Structure formats: structure tokens, C-alpha cells
Amino acid sequence: MEPKGYDAVLLASFGGPEGQDDVIPFLRNVTRGRGIPDERLEEVSHHYRAFGGVSPINGQNRELKAALEAELDARGIELPVYWGNRNWDPYIPETLQRMYDDGHRRVLMLTTSAYSCYSSCRQYREDIGVALTETGLAGRLEVDKVRQYFDHPGFVEPFVEGTTAGLAQVREALDAADGSRDGEIRVLFATHSIPTRDAEAAGRSGSEPREFEGGSAYVAQHLANARAVMAAVAPDVAWDLVYQSRSGAPHIPWLEPDINDHLEAIAGGEDGAPIVKGVVIVPLGFVSDHMEVAWDLDTEALETCEKLGIQAVRVPTPGVHGKFVAGLVDLIRERTSDDTVADRPHVTDLGPWYDVCRPGCCENFRGAKPVIAEAGVELAGASAGQDES
User: Fold this and answer.
1) What whole-number distance in Å separates Cα of residue 193 and Cα of residue 241?
2) Where in the chain are the domains?
3) Is residue 55 annotated as involved in ligand binding?
4) How is domain 153-314 classified at the CATH fold level?
5) DSSP secondary-structure letter at 299?
6) Are 5 and 336 spatial neighbours (Cβ–Cβ below 8 Å)?
7) Which residues bind Fe-coproporphyrin III (predicted)?
8) Whether pLDDT at 205 is above 80
9) Do the annotations mark residue 124 as ligand-binding?
10) 197 Cα distance to chain centroid
């Protein structure tokens, strides 16, 4: 798209409960339209209950908003930053209304989701369309979205730093135990699993078909990023792409392998298969250390490692890393006529991604909006897309 004179930035995210009393109302929002009773929601609320009913995501978005404001101010870019969520306060429709009431007419949306699939890209655009209609702002408030930034250096370089540090920590732990060899260490790049049909639709368009590794832009983007990280860190160390947070009906196929199943497989055993004694878990699919990282990786995956006797380190997400925040502001600059930069950096051959994806890209096959499980919520008959943080 041509640069425009935007007058505000919308930081759009998923949202999460901020206390025990919020958990069920939040899960009602996530599963709205599916008729799931509160009793069933309570059965799957244990991820939140274990953390006092508080998801880290809202606090992290407050920190990210403040960091973006500071970086914009440091560069002399006069764009106020607003924050809106899909599933909890502050909600996107109310935030758009507030932006309009404050006098803004052209808004650039920045999301906490880096990769291409329905739930992490197209659904944001659809949600904005619905919100503009609900608030009566359609035709009065213009909202555009920045490109998917999966391979922007600002997103990738924090993972390079974290993976370097993680490998050093695992090697030190193994040396202290009984000595180690690089062949006994594996790097696992973890991301949210999605239904395979959704994955196959990611990045595809009937008008401009494009082939991707693994049959999906979602898979190809993660693989390309993982290769870029390992090329910069340790080209000779083995690595795998694994998935987490599967939810929904068990008969629907999702991307595999699950990280816990894969840990069991690579740990080895009596059949003489290679034994992995140390792993570095890189949450490559996520922007911040939200509930899916805190539960599915820091709790479940690390417990699996402990059970198997595997030394493990989980790498931080970008969060408010200086390079990540600077990279997000660079993405804003790409689109603003007052501060345009022509360069669109990218670390893989897949990028830079489109400002506006092609018609039919990342199609939603389920008609109604899919459930997105921020904590790997498992609900019979419900299916989840990728969490965007």
C-alpha cells in the first residue's frame, strides 16, 4: 500500500483474565456462539486458576504499549498508541470508538501476531470490520494493518540472542553433570499448533497460487525462521519444529509433532536410538511470555524434560526487547507518509510479506470465527487457532 498520513496506532491483541472472577466470563468470550456450558468451561480453566486467574498477556501488552510510546517519542514520531483486545477489556470496538472520539480518522493497526494463518492475520481484519460496523464508524474511521513481521530482524534477533545463551546454559549444565557432546543437544522451535486444513490455507490465494514448504505459509515461515536462527547461532546443532497448545475435537487433524510427544521420542531408550540429554526450547511462534508459554512450555514441557532426565532451558520471547520494539516502530514507519522508510528488512527468502494479503488468503473453513485458545483450552467440539501473542 502507498504510505498514508496515519494519526494513531492501534496495538491489537488477544486479551486475558486478570483475576479468578474473570476466568469464566473470559472463556465465555473466547467460545462465544458455541453454546458451551459454564460447567465445561470450569473444567478447562485450570491453566488460569493455577496462576491466580491472571493471564500475563494484559500486563505484557501494557509494557509493550509503554515501550512503543517511548520509542516513538525518542524518534520524534507523533503518533499516540491505543490498545484493544479481542476477548477482554479493553475491547477493540470500544477502543476504536475512543480513538474516533479523540479526533483520529486514519489508524494503523499493529498486532501481537507475527505469522500467517487465519487466526493470526485475516481474523484481525475481519474483527476490525465487524467492530467498525457495530460502532457505526464504517466509512468514518479508516483502519489499516501492518504486514506480518515473522522474519523482520527485530522479531528474529532476540531469538538469536536467546538461543545462543540457552545453548551455553545447557552445555554448562551437562558439563557439570557428566560431560557432553553437541550431538546430545537439540534445539526445539515451538509454536502453536493449528488444524492442518487451516495451515494448508495459510498464505494461499485462488487468484495467485503459491507453493510453500510443508504445504503452508504458516509452516514454511517457521521453518525459514528456525534456519535463520540456527545459521546465526550453531549450524551444526540439530533442531526440530514442534507444536503445542492443541485444542478442539480430537478427530480433526492438527499440525504435529506435539512438543511433549517429541521429547519422549528424542530422549531415546533401550532400542539404541540416539539419546538427547539437553534441549533448548525456543518459543519461536510467540511475541511474549503469555499463558501458553507459561503453562504449555514452562510447566508441561519442562516437567516432561525433568521426567525424562533432560536438561532444558526455555528461551525468552521478544517481549519488550529493545530490538523488537525498535522493529515494530520500523514497521510503522514503512507505512506513514510523514516518516516513510523504503527499506523493508527481512531475514528469509519468504519476506517481506504483503501489506495486504491476496483475496482468499488464509480462508476460514469453519464459517463462524474459530476459538483461539490462549491457554490451550481443550473444549469438545471447539477448535482453536493460533494464539497471537
Assistant:
1) 11
2) 8-149+320-385, 153-314
3) yes
4) Rossmann fold (3.40.50)
5) I
6) yes
7) 55, 124
8) no
9) yes
10) 19
